[in-house]
Design a protein that fits this description.
Elements: H1 2-9, H2 17-33, H3 37-50, H4 56-68, H5 72-80, H6 87-100, H7 103-112, H8 118-130, H9 134-143, H10 149-161, H11 165-178, H12 184-197, H13 200-212, H14 219-231, H15 235-244, H16 250-256, H17 262-271, H18 277-289, H19 293-305, H20 312-325, H21 328-340, H22 347-359, H23 363-372, H24 378-390, H25 394-403, H26 411-423, H27 427-439, H28 446-459, H29 462-475, H30 481-493, H31 497-506, H32 512-524, H33 528-541, H34 548-561, H35 564-578, H36 584-596, H37 600-608, H38 616-628, H39 632-645, H40 651-662, H41 666-678, E1 687-692, E2 695-700, H42 709-724
Antiparallel strand pairs: 1-2
Helix pairs in contact: 2-4, 4-5, 4-6, 6-7, 6-8, 8-9, 8-10, 9-10, 10-11, 10-12, 11-12, 12-13, 12-14, 13-14, 14-15, 14-16, 16-18, 17-18, 18-19, 18-20, 19-20, 20-21, 20-22, 21-22, 22-23, 22-24, 23-24, 24-25, 24-26, 25-26, 26-27, 26-28, 27-28, 28-29, 28-30, 29-30, 30-31, 30-32, 31-32, 32-33, ...
């Protein structure tokens, strides 16, 4: 390039002006394409010196060069050199203004034009579309007298780019009705619209038209078809299109990586003849999204070692991976790379970093980054609010929630704050925020409903749960597997096991959690035989794998139905049949099972043979069995073991005291109570609650703090009196 520049500077235009002018135009074109504005300005000086800078074709190339480099002052000076109106110059100026977002100036130039061509109109259509100003763009489209394939395509692709795929397809039909032949860019945009709409039938119709018009071998069209097929789950068809391509580029290879089979995608990635930063980023993102964090990190290291600069999306993916692993130190190193590359203020990268710090418990660092953000969108606000909620810092979450601009709040925002209060056990706040959400007209999503149903289950608020069920049916999301599972759990924990079963049976899709919730609900609601039947049904009719919570419920059911042999059989089969290693609570369940059946000494022997230290609950279960079957001596041994493990827990002392009391050994009773007093232990009072008119009222033993305590105790005395009457 520099040699060509030196050569032209020494040339004499008088000898062969036409050849000289052509060389100048060609050189300006190359300087423009390489962004060499310094050399271009120097060459402009030479052209002025040679007296040829005002030649129309040369002047236009100079104008385009300055416009592309955003040198508006120089471009304006050149435009003044044209005598009167010049259509090409005006089109160049308009195109530059709409590309820079100077819409008022572009409109002024456009309105002043005494003559316009298809380039003028298309520049306005595509320029406004680029900045999301769809209505204004279509205003120009509808008034455009030159409806050629370029302007039609500008409208269609603009619609797709701005998320109006349905409108894009309607415009495409009008194009076909007008008799205009689509080109490869039109088809690429239309295929993308079909993918966004997830409409396979429509996609196949477009494919037929592509074949009919001879564009099936076009590289860009084939690439878009691969993406469409993968989006709608037609993996085999995507692979057929890929295999039949005569020519493939890096985009083709990158597109086929988006298949469901990660192993196959990884194999294809290794076969790629050429990889760019998009290919690497796609593969890293796929591994990260599917939970293969180690593979994701390995690929990222390989990418950096090969000197390929990560894209913004790649940085976001790898930061998300580190957030999942809670790898703070590695995340801070990546943060340093992000800062070094001047992309920290990218909203998606910064949101990923905020998420990383919050998941690692560093909410202060996350907030510092949030406050320093030049740009904040709904993602960054939601990430910070969700981070506070995740760490139980609900005051900070609430303050930020109220500081968030109202137009930015969405269902994810509300779900984050509700989930935070739910995790902290502040159920009154959960219901309060949900009520506010509804009053502001926000429609809850499946995640919000799942959290609300969990709150109802935790407080046994059957009335509220039924009200939520009605809203769910009204919105038509009752068949969602997560909502259905939450409803099953809510009804079971609220005591309506029959309706819990009805909801479960109506679910068209059931996952591992659904089956676990139903089996557990039956076990804990006093239906042990039905629990075992449901477990057997799951084994026979579904492909769901058994988990440790299911087996715990099964052992619980066997314990409460006296099926000792069956329970021990399930326990012994855990590793061999179900590939689940027994944990402490499973051993505790067997101890409880043996103790309930009166096999007290067998239970003690089982505890002593455990491969690791038993839970305090195991000793408590044995002590409870000693109370039932009046084994005072064993009770004393067991109580001492329990005291060693849970010195601050009064349960073991109370149980032993009750055992001695039932045997009439009052001296031992007094000794135990004296020991409790010396250790500062008190028996926890019992608690019950009742829901009245959307409010939950809690009552503790010997507690008079309730505002209506005097009236309540008067009613209790009256009931006692009436119960005592013959």
């Amino acid at each position: 390039m520099r040699n060509a520049l030196r050569s032209i500077l020494s040339a004499k235009p008088a000898k062969d002006f036409n050849g000289y002018a052509e060389t100048c135009v060609s050189l300006l074109k190359n300087l423009n394409s390489h962004g060499l504005i310094t050399e271009g300005s120097a060459f402009h000086g030479h052209l002025i010196k040679m007296g040829v800078s005002s030649e129309r074709y040369i002047a236009i190339k100079l104008l385009v060069m300055y416009l592309n480099c955003r040198k508006s002052a120089e471009a304006n000076e050149i435009s003044k050199e044209f005598n009167g109106f010049d259509l090409v110059v005006h089109n160049c100026m308009i195109s530059a203004d709409v590309q820079w977002g100077n819409f008022d100036r572009a409109r002024k130039l456009f309105d002043e034009m005494p003559e316009r061509n298809e380039v003028s109109w298309t520049a306005m259509i595509s320029g406004f579309m680029k900045y999301g100003r769809v209505k204004e763009s279509m205003w120009y489209f509808e008034r455009n007298p030159f409806h050629n394939v370029v302007s039609w395509t500008a409208g269609i692709s603009g619609y797709v780019r701005n998320g109006f795929s349905f409108e894009a397809m309607k415009l495409f039909l009008k194009l076909l009705e007008s008799g205009v032949m689509p080109n490869n860019v039109t088809f690429t945009s239309v295929v993308r619209a079909c993918g966004d709409l997830r409409d396979f039938g429509l996609g196949m119709c477009v494919l037929g038209l592509i074949v009919k018009t001879g564009f099936e071998h076009n590289l860009a069209v084939s690439n878009s078809l691969i993406t469409l097929c993968l989006k709608i789950g037609e993996i085999d068809l995507a692979r057929k299109i890929f295999d039949r391509m005569d020519v493939r580029d890096v985009v083709s290879w990158t597109a086929i990586l988006d298949m469901d089979d990660l192993v196959e995608a990884r194999r294809i990635f290794e076969e790629m003849p050429e990889r760019n930063e998009i290919s690497w980023s796609t593969m890293i993102a796929r591994c990260s999204q599917r939970g293969y964090t180690d593979e994701s990190l390995k690929l990222f290291r390989q990418m950096v070692q090969q000197g390929i600069k990560p894209t913004i999306s790649c940085f976001s993916s790898i930061i998300s991976t580190l957030a999942t692993l809670e790898a703070l130190q590695a995340g801070m190193i990546i943060h340093g790379h992000v800062t070094k590359n001047w992309i920290q203020n990218d909203v998606f990268v910064s949101s990923s970093l905020i998420d990383l710090y919050c998941k690692c418990g560093e909410t202060k660092k996350g907030r510092l980054l949030f406050d320093s953000d030049m740009e904040k969108n709904v993602v960054s606000w939601n990430t910070m609010i969700g981070g506070y909620s995740l760490n139980g810092e609900m005051e900070e979450a609430k303050d930020l929630f109220h500081a968030m601009p109202m137009p930015l709040r969405n269902r994810v925002t509300w779900s984050a704050i509700i989930a935070g209060y739910l995790d902290c056990g502040q159920f009154d706040k959960v219901f309060e925020i949900f009520k506010e959400m509804l009053l502001l007209g926000e429609i809850p999503n499946t995640s919000t409903f799942s959290s609300m149903l969990s709150a109802c289950a935790s407080t046994a608020s059957l009335g509220k749960g039924k009200d939520l069920h009605g809203k769910i049916i009204k919105l038509g999301i009752q068949y969602d597997v997560f909502v259905g599972t939450a409803l099953t759990d809510m009804y079971a924990k609220s005591g309506d096991i029959e309706y819990s079963r009805k909801v479960f049976d109506r679910m068209s899709e059931k996952n591992e959690v659904s089956w676990t919730v139903m089996i557990q609900g039956l076990a804990e609601s006093g239906f042990p035989l039905e629990c075992l039947d449901k477990f057997q049904e799951m084994e026979e009719t579904s492909t769901v794998a058994c988990n440790e919570q299911m087996l715990l419920s099964v052992l619980f059911a066997c314990s409460h139905s006296g099926l000792i042999n069956k329970g021990v059989g399930y326990f012994n089969s855990m590793e061999a049949v179900y590939a689940v290693k027994p944990k402490g609570r499973h051993y505790t369940c067997i101890v409880d099972m043996l103790s309930r059946a009166g096999l007290i000494y067998e239970a003690e022997e089982f505890i002593n043979s455990m491969p690791y230290k038993p839970e305090s609950n195991a000793w408590a279960a044995l002590l409870s069995g000693c109370k039932t079957y009046k084994k005072e001596e064993l009770a004393g041994r067991t109580a001492r073991r329990l005291w060693e493990m849970a010195e601050k827990n009064s349960a073991g002392y109370v149980l032993l005291s009750n055992i001695y009391a039932s045997a009439g050994r009052w001296v031992e009773v007094m000794n135990v109570r004296k020991l409790m007093k010396e250790k500062g232990l008190n028996k926890n009072g019992g608690c019950s609650w009742v829901e009245v008119k959307d409010s939950v009222h809690s009552f503790y033993s010997d507690d008079g703090t309730h505002l209506q305590s005097p009236e309540i105790y008067e009613i209790i005395q009256l009931l006692r009196f009436e119960m005592a009457l013959p």
